[in-house]
Amino acid sequence: MVMEFQHLLLLLWFLIPILYLFLHKFILRKKSQISKPNLTAEKPRLPPGRSGWPLVGETLDFFSKANQGCLHKFVADRRKKYSSNIFRTSLIGFPVAILCDAEGNKFLFSNENKLFKHWLPSAFDKLFPKSNNKLNTNHSKSLRKLLAFILKGDVLREYVGEMDEVMKHHLQTDWNCERVKVSDVARKFVLKLECHIFLGIENQGKIDKLLKGIEEVTDGMHSIPLDVPGSAFRRAIKASKLMREEFEEMIRQRKIDRLDSSSGKDFISHALQATDDNGQLFNEADIASHLLGALQAAYGTLHHRITNIMMYLTEHPDVYNLVLRGKSIANSAHASVCLR
């Protein structure tokens, strides 16, 4: 019995590489068939880079750096290697071009829906499901417009007072000790701020529960998208579903009670009163899915930025002293205004 099992393992070990190469050749053949009508066209100029392993590309290195919290190293290494602010790679089976400088980002975002279109891998649909409303194809687009409106500078100014209060409480509770792990406290601060602006909730127990869910979704996004038991992606799908269900219940309760804990300024309050281009109200599932996407996007971006800023301040004492001096001048100016 043991010998038969060993023979089976050896057979599998031999067949897997063959199957892998066969699939790779099949996919390349399909791609070449699709591109045959354009054989006479001029070959496009591509940025420097490499596709890595067949099918896998450079995905393993990308996710490895992401899990270590040094994703910037993935970009910096290739930027240095190719001596270019733009390079190509292959991630999760897709060819990708990465722009590394401010000029490239400005070009990208100023040409959205002109030269570029917003896109996410199909696997992400399991984490952030799209609307099933076939009668209204612009449903999701209308919600994105509403979210963009709430995040405009003029609207965000209304939150300055709340942001200040959240920051003061955060400094008193999480920074009032000899040693602080910046990455952890930055996560707590960012999510608490998001909960005020998007959800209108202040309950720390609920915020801590959401923090765990957001972390699992983030880990799943930074892993191979295999929906199998025990995988980070499977845990992310489960966490996403639980969070969306909780958001839907929160939205339904808000409808029933007609309560507005944040004076009608949070995303839920705006979404309950708004309609799409056809005059239809948004349903709970659509609002919940966009809420999760907004929370995750802001969370992943901001807490890394705060952590990096604090790291750079410790590495550059001269900059830290200038910041400290600027804060002292601002406090003195504020005190003189109050005295007058």
Automatic annotation (TrEMBL):
Claim: Phosphoprotein is one of the keywords in the record: no
Where mainly found?
membrane
Bilayer-crossing residues are 6-23
**Any signal peptide, and if so, which residues?**
none
Keywords, comma-separated and alphabetical: Heme, Iron, Membrane, Metal-binding, Monooxygenase, Oxidoreductase, Transmembrane, Transmembrane helix
- Which Pfam families does the record match to this protein? p450 (PF00067)
Subcellular locations according to the entry: Membrane
Per the entry, which co-factors are needed?
heme
Q: Which InterPro entries match?
A: Cyt_P450 (IPR001128), Cyt_P450_sf (IPR036396)
Q: Which SUPFAM superfamilies match?
A: Cytochrome P450
Family, per entry: Belongs to the cytochrome P450 family.
Q: What is this protein called?
A: Dammarenediol 12-hydroxylase-like
> Source species, please?
Coffea arabica
**Annotated gene:** LOC140016000
